[in-house]
């Protein structure tokens, strides 16, 4: 499991110098496996967990600097590291002329980067357990962040669930200058989205296919063996099609999870994709009887809560299979819904209106959106006109708490009124159309890197569709092109229509999980009731106890949305609070 720890301090600060030397001795002495890859005036960089046969530290030529993580070829035509190269990395550089130290997190945020301070030493790290085990901080809960994250699951700000830890956001550079930290963005998705968008469908289709294949194959080539989570949906099938004919492909095994049930079993689609690609497909049934929710109380410590249910269900299966097959990488089509613009077709109408006005084509764009949203074309047009002439810019934070029934209404109201909860990307930029704003926000949530239960043997998880060149291409593709023909992800469907089975390309619906989620809840009802009703979220007034009691009963409909909310968010957040408290 790869980790890094960066120490940066002002050399003239004696207290910081002594603390830095103490931390360096702690890492180099009794703690085996840590290697100091860069030592300079006021700067020390360590890493550990480098897999055999791989390189996770790239020295920068002509500077006292190093790139931690994986680095690939050219990302685009920009300047600086974030404009030239792409990958999953954190870069640290000390400028010999100015003595400034800068830390840059890559634009996808795929490698975690957090900041804390200890006796004048700035700590930049990927894994909280490192600084906790060294006794460098004593964490306390940031309840304002927790309340906001419960109501607004897309929350991405510099604050975290711990008062002592902040996050370096994707594409952000932090500079240590004369004892103070200054933050700025070396990569800005809003500026990319505003620059020269593709209006030609043919060009968009061609570029998407080429770029997707390049990114997926670059990631695949960095592993000795691969597991691919093949759901049978469009996105995972696209990833498989890119792996199908790559030169010198590593050994590949596809893994498909299914749930028995009329609306939840997608095996036939996964089989079609695997047969088309000529690869092995292993099927594993997800059975609520084999999902011990109590495991959620044993998560690894981290600066903020995550969604752990997915890993409780699948991690052991994946780890065992990876060991059997010699796979060091685990890939999937996750992130494709955001990248290819699967939701909010209604906002695409507003985007078209803002760019082209009341042109004859507007009605056709609204009709496409209506088909996807299962709404009337007039509703789509009314919404677009309202957005176009609204005095205030559309803000997704003001939709926080929608369709939620167990969050305290006062918490939702406070979150909706707090504009500081919107990502810093949007605080000082020109107006961005609402669909593209939604697109940017949906791409801002960085994927998980570490196994949430601290398993050292876990294969490295990679989401190849969330690669910087693909994100930049998607940002420059107008949302209304992605809804053309009345189909979501329209450009992706066209780009891979010759590579993915036609049945999958034509699919409009995803497999439902409502009944399955209810079965998990029924089997673990007493544990969930005890954990939440007597938990910290209720004690702090974030969750409404009476609302929870109504939902946590056996009399409710088996298809209610609230069960996913309770299992995937509230139970996971409560488990994180207990672990960190």
Protein described:
This protein is of the alpha+beta class. It has 3 domains: 3-186, Aminohydrolase, N-terminal nucleophile (Ntn) domain (Glutamine Phosphoribosylpyrophosphate, subunit 1, domain 1, 4-Layer Sandwich); 192-339 and 444-506, HUPs (Rossmann fold, 3-Layer(aba) Sandwich), CATH 3.40.50.620; 514-580, no CATH class. 39% of the residues lie in helices and 16% in strands. The protein has 23 helices and 17 strands. It has a 6-stranded antiparallel sheet with strand order 2-3-1-9-8-10. A hairpin with a 2-residue loop joins strand 11 (172-177) and strand 12 (180-185). Helix 11 crosses helix 15. The longest helix has 20 residues, at 201-220. It is globular, with a radius of gyration of 24 Å. The mean pLDDT is 90.
Explain the layout of strands and helices.
Layout (H helix, E strand, L loop, with lengths): L2 E6 L5 H15 L6 E6 L2 E6 L8 E3 L4 E11 L6 H4 E10 L6 E5 L8 E5 L2 E5 L2 H6 L9 H9 L14 E2 L4 E6 L2 E6 L3 H6 L6 H20 L5 E4 L4 H11 L7 E7 L8 H11 L2 E6 L23 H17 L3 E4 L3 H4 L5 H12 L5 H12 L3 H12 L20 H8 L17 H9 L17 E3 L5 H8 L14 H6 L6 H5 L7 H10 L1 H9 L2 H4 L5 H7 L10 H19 L1
Parallel strand pairs: 13-14, 13-16, 14-15, 16-17
Antiparallel strand pairs: 1-3, 1-9, 2-3, 4-5, 5-6, 6-7, 7-11, 8-9, 8-10, 11-12
């Amino acid at each position: 499991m790869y980790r890094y720890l960066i120490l940066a301090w002002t050399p003239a600060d004696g207290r910081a110098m002594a603390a830095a030397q103490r931390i360096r001795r702690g890492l180099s002495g009794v703690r085996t496996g840590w290697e100091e890859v860069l030592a300079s005036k006021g700067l020390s960089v360590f890493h550990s967990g480098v897999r055999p046969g791989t390189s996770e530290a790239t020295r920068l030529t002509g500077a006292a600097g190093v790139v931690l993580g994986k680095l690939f070829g050219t990302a685009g035509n920009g300047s600086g590291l974030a404009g030239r190269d792409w990958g999953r990395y954190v870069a640290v550089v000390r400028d010999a002329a100015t003595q400034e130290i800068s830390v840059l997190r890559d634009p996808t945020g795929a490698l975690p980067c957090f900041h804390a301070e200890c006796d004048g030493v700035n700590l930049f790290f990927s894994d909280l357990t490192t600084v906790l085990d060294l006794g460098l901080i004593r964490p306390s809960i940031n309840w304002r962040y927790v309340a906001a994250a419960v109501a607004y699951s897309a929350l991405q700000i510099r604050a975290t669930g711990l008062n002592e830890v902040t996050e370096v956001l994707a594409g952000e550079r932090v500079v240590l200058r004369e004892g103070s930290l200054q933050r700025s963005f070396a990569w800005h998705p809003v500026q990319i989205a505003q620059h020269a968008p593709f209006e030609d469908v043919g060009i968009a289709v061609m570029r998407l296919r080429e770029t997707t294949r390049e990114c997926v194959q670059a990631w695949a080539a960095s592993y000795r063996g691969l597991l691919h989570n093949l759901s049978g949906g469009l996105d995972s099938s696209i990833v498989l099609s890119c792996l199908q004919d790559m030169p010198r492909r590593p050994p590949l095994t596809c893994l498909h999870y299914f749930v028995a049930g009329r609306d939840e079993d997608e095996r036939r689609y996964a089989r079609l994709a695997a047969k088309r690609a000529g690869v092995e497909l292993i099927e594993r049934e997800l059975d609520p009887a084999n999902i011990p929710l109590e495991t959620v109380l044993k998560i690894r410590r981290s600066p903020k809560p995550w969604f752990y249910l997915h890993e409780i269900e699948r991690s052991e299966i994946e780890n065992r299979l990876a060991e059997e097959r010699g796979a060091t990488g685990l890939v999937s089509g996750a992130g494709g819904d955001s990248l290819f613009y699967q939701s909010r077709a209604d906002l695409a109408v507003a985007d078209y209106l803002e760019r082209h006005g009341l042109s004859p084509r507007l009605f056709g764009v609204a009709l496409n959106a209506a088909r996807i949203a299962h709404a009337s074309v007039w509703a789509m047009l009314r919404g677009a006109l309202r957005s176009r002439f609204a005095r205030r810019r559309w803000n997704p934070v003001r939709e926080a708490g929608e369709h939620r029934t167990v969050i305290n209404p006062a918490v939702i109201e406070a979150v909706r009124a707090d504009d500081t909860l919107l990502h810093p990307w949007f605080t000082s930029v020109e107006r961005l159309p609402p669909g593209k704003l939604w697109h940017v926000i949906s791409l801002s949530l960085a994927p998980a890197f570490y196994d949430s239960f601290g398993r050292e043997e876990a294969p490295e998880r990679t989401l190849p569709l969330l690669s910087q060149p693909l994100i930049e291409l998607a940002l420059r593709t107008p949302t209304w092109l992605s809804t053309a023909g009345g189909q979501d992800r329209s450009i992706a469907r066209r780009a891979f229509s010759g590579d993915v089975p036609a049945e999958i390309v034509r699919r409009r619906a995803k497999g439902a999980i409502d009944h399955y989620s209810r079965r998990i809840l029924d089997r673990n009802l007493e544990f969930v009731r005890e954990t939440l009703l007597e938990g910290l979220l209720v004690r702090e007034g974030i969750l409404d106890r009476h609302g929870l009691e109504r939902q946590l009963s056996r009399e409710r409909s088996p298809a209610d949305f609230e069960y996913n909310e309770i299992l995937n968010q509230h139970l996971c957040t409560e488990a994180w609070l207990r672990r960190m408290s």
